[in-house]
Amino acid sequence: MKGVYFAGDREIEFRDFPDPEPGPREVIIAMKASGMCGSDLHGYRAPRSVRQQREPNIGGHEPCGEVVARGSAVTEAEAPMGQRMMIYHYSGCEKCKMCQIGYYQMCPTEAKVYGGMYDGGHAPFMKVRPYMMVPLPDELSAEEGAAISCGTGTAYMAIKRLNVSGRDTLAIYGQGPVGLSATMLAKAMGARVIGVDVGVERLDLAKEFGADEVVDASEVDPVEAIRELTHGDGAEATLDCTGNPTARANTVRSAQNWGRACYVGEGNNVELNPSPDIIHRQLTLYGSWTFNPVGMAECARFVVDRNVPLKKLLTHRFKLEEAEAAYKLFDTQTTGKGVFLFD
Q: Contact at 8 Å (CB) between 36 and 313?
């Protein structure tokens, strides 16, 4: 079968990969939708010389499809034929403490990232383990399931860790697919949302998706702007979805005394002075790394029960053979989420 390979230096290659065959405890999923995530850009933008140092693999870590084959030791109850499934894109040893609570990405010995080092969803078929599958609610489309499989699920768990409610103003740095998901989800939880970005296109999307206020960090000091919007106090909760060093520092400095701040955007560093920035302000600082399969299912049910307009997040749809053009557009960081759809 043909699959998308991130060759590096912003180049996409369609390569031939073997059709997957299930081992005894494996399941084959026929893809229906495979989302594009900001994390994909790390491999897409990496130098070709770096990419050539590793075995080629199929990209895409936001898969959603249906069960078409299963191994001899997988039961019908675990993987009903034809069942629509969102795919949790990690596996582990299945024995350690982290695996036992479903956080396979934190497995100290056998953590695997599908679409990272192992074959992901940008191909017609994908091989997974039974615990990586989360049933997709009937009310949701495959493309919505793909979004929940990483970006939207990641936003949900970060907001849950921040314990956001209608009492809070939440400032969200970055209004890409994760930040836009956070905007929609936080609004459904009753929060007042301030969206922060440097791009007019994404700030316009933030308004469309429910942000009460938006701040263009390329035009004003976002920390001062957020304080002006919160009677000089700062926001009760703040969330960084960028991984940008400046935005990360501003995320902490935008929170009010006794406030909560959370980092979810990957990459880069941050420079903070712990005493004035955190200790003397009694700040609580969280890190939130994706979710577990239980959290993924909870996010999907929340989207359904609260009528979160998740489909609006999906602004661009492509066929797999359009991957080169799709990633060129996604790399501009001006759009909502892009997704590949399969017949």
A: no
Query: How many CB atoms within 10 Å of residue 281?
Result: 17
Paired with 314 in beta bridges are 337
User: What CATH code would you report for 155-287?
Assistant: 3.40.50.720
The answer to whether 342 touches 323, Cβ cutoff 8 Å, is no
Using one digit for the tens of pLDDT, what is the confidence trace for 44-103? Answer: 999 999 998 888 999 999 999 999 999 999 999 999 999 999 999 999 999 999 999 999
Is 90 exceeded by the pLDDT of residue 110?
A: yes
- Note whether 68 and 28 are within 8 A (CB): yes
Q: Which single residue is written with the structure tokens 């075995």?
A: 55
Structure tokens at 316: 């661009």
DSSP 284-312: EEEE-----HHHHHHHHHHHHHTT--GGG
Percent of the chain with pLDDT over 90: 96
Q: Where are the domains of the chain?
A: 2-150+291-341, 155-287
State the pTM of this model.
Answer: 0.95
Fold adopted by 2-150+291-341: Quinone Oxidoreductase; Chain A, domain 1 (3.90.180)
pLDDT score of 199: 87
What size, in residues, is the chain? 343
Residues whose CB is less than 8 angstroms from the CB of residue 218 and which lie 6 or more positions away in sequence, other chains included: 198
